[in-house]
Structure formats: structure tokens, C-alpha cells
Amino acid sequence: MKRILPVLAVWTLAVVLPARAQQVDIEQLAETCRGCHGDSENLPVDPTYPIIAGQEFYYLYVQLRDFKSGLRENETMQGVVADLDRETLKAIAQYWSEKPWPKTNFPAPSEKDVRLAEQAVTSAECTACHLGDFRGSSRVPRLKNQQPGYLEKTMKDMKEQRRRNSPNMMALFKTFPDEWIEALARYLAAL
Ligand code: HEC
Ligand code: HEC
């Protein structure tokens, strides 16, 4: 019995004092995000910033986690997540994933864009992962109606290995001429 007691004592402490979760007001935190990323009514403030309202929950969470660990580098986002714990990252990812995607009206791609983009989509079987209408699923992001400026930037970042958190996508875009990437960005944005 004597030997069990300290174990019991530790166990009791663990129950009485649960690991202190960060107390963050998610609505208030979302205001910060909104300032750059917009929301279900407003597009992001810069064409190279991604829409996050309506994006897949698990994809959002993985990106936030990767910014926090430095696996995905971006000074702005690394600053945003620096002091947020895992539970808070999950909660804010959940918050945005439950919002509707904003209405977009990006210009229709040219015939040449469509031809190049369809060639790229067929050759790399993008839809095997991103699904038929590029709506995404779980860890695979939605690309349909994403901001064209962001799509182009992030695909080029992966190609040039500035965005290094996805070895598969880096390897894929390395084989793509810039012309394909630019056509894909306009094509996906206007789907
Ligand atoms: C000061 C502007 C700014 C603020 C505030 C901000 N972000 Fe970002 N965020 C960015 C930029 C710029 C990028 C694109 C980084 C890149 O190009 O790799 C980004 C990228 C992201 C991505 C990656 C999306 C994708 O499709 O890969 C997620 C997720 C994200 N932000 C979530 C958030 C959340 C959640 C908040 C609020 C807690 C937030 N951001 C606040 C500027 C901001
Ligand atoms: C084998 C599955 C797979 C295939 C094939 C694939 N992708 Fe992806 N893609 C992913 C995953 C998973 C991610 C998320 C990577 C991460 O977590 O950073 C991603 C990320 C992306 C992103 C970043 C989106 C964002 O919000 O930052 C773009 C753009 C993209 N893919 C475009 C494409 C295009 C275009 C094709 C075809 C030419 C393609 N992908 C083929 C699985 C795939």
C-alpha cells in the first residue's frame, strides 16, 4: 500500500490540476486573421494572401503547426502563431473551416490558359488528391476559387523550394514551367 500511495498522489494531482490550456477568445483572435485574410464576405487585403474562410480544417491546422515549427517559413505568419498553443491552433482552424467560402469573381482564363492548365492537370493527376472540382478534402487544400495571386506565388514558392513543408508538391512543381503554373493559377481561381 505504501508503494501505491505516491502514485495515487501524483494521479490525483493530475486530475485536480489539468494541464493549463491557453485561454484565448477565438472570436477576438479571428478578428486578427480577418485583418489580412478577409472572411466570408470580404476577400483578403492583398492578392497574394490566401482565402482561409471555408478551407479544410485539417489542412489549416497543419499549415499553422508548420508555421509554428518553422517547417513552413513566412515571417508574418510565424509571428501570428508564435504564442499560440496547439489547442488554440486547432480551435482557430476549426473556426475558419466552418465559415462559408467567400463569393469570388476572378476573371475567366484565356483559351490558352485553359489548354495549358488542363494539360498540367492531366499530366499530374491533381484531381486524384484535390478531387474532381478541386474542392479539397481533409489534409488536401481546396484550390477552387482561391486567389490567383496567392496560387501563383505559393506554387512558385514550392517550385523554388521557398515553401518546403510539402516534399511531394515541391517535386511536382519543379518539373513545371512557369507558364503552366501561371495558367493553373488563373484556371483554378475561376473554376
Ligand atoms: C498581417 C497579415 C496576416 C495576419 C494577421 C494573419 N495572416 Fe495568415 N497569412 C498571411 C500571409 C501573407 C500568408 C501567406 C504566406 C505564404 O505566402 O506562404 C498567410 C498564410 C496563412 C495560412 C496558409 C493558407 C494556405 O492556403 O496554405 C493559414 C492557414 C493562415 N495564414 C491562417 C491565419 C490565421 C488563422 C490567422 C489569425 C490567427 C492569420 N493567418 C493571420 C498573412 C496574415
Ligand atoms: C498526391 C496528391 C496530390 C497531387 C497529385 C497534387 N496535390 Fe497539390 N497538394 C496536395 C497536398 C497534400 C497539399 C498540402 C501540402 C501541405 O500540407 O503543405 C497540396 C497543396 C497544394 C497547393 C497549395 C495550396 C495552398 O492553399 O497553399 C497547391 C496550389 C496545389 N497543391 C496544387 C496542385 C496542382 C495544380 C496539382 C496538379 C498539377 C496538384 N496540386 C497535385 C496533394 C496533391
Name the CATH superfamily assignment of the largest domain.
Cytochrome c-like domain
Q: Between the first and last Cα atoms, what is the distance in angstroms?
A: 69 Å
Structural class: mainly alpha
Spatial shape = globular
- What CATH architecture of the largest domain do you see? Orthogonal Bundle
How many β strands by DSSP? 0
Characterize the largest beta sheet: strand count, sense, and whether it forms a barrel.
none
- How many helices? The count is 10
Content of β-strand: under 5%
Order of helices and strands: HHHHHHHHHH
By CATH reckoning, the class of the largest domain would read Mainly Alpha
List the ligand species.
heme C
**Mean pLDDT level:** 92
Number of folding domains?
Answer: 2
Q: What is the radius of gyration?
A: 21 Å
Characterise the protein shown here.
The protein is mainly α and 191 residues long. The protein folds into two domains: 26-97, Cytochrome c-like domain (Cytochrome Bc1 Complex, Chain D, domain 2); 111-189, Cytochrome Bc1 Complex, Chain D, domain 2 (Orthogonal Bundle). Helix content is 57%, strand content 0%. It is built from ten helices and no strands. It has helices spanning 4-16, 26-37, 57-69, 75-81, 86-97, 111-124, 126-130, 148-159, 167-174, 178-189. Helix 8 crosses helix 9 (167-174). It starts with a helix and ends with a helix. The structure holds heme C (2 copies). One heme C (HEC) binds next to helix 2, helix 3, helix 4, helix 5 and helix 8.
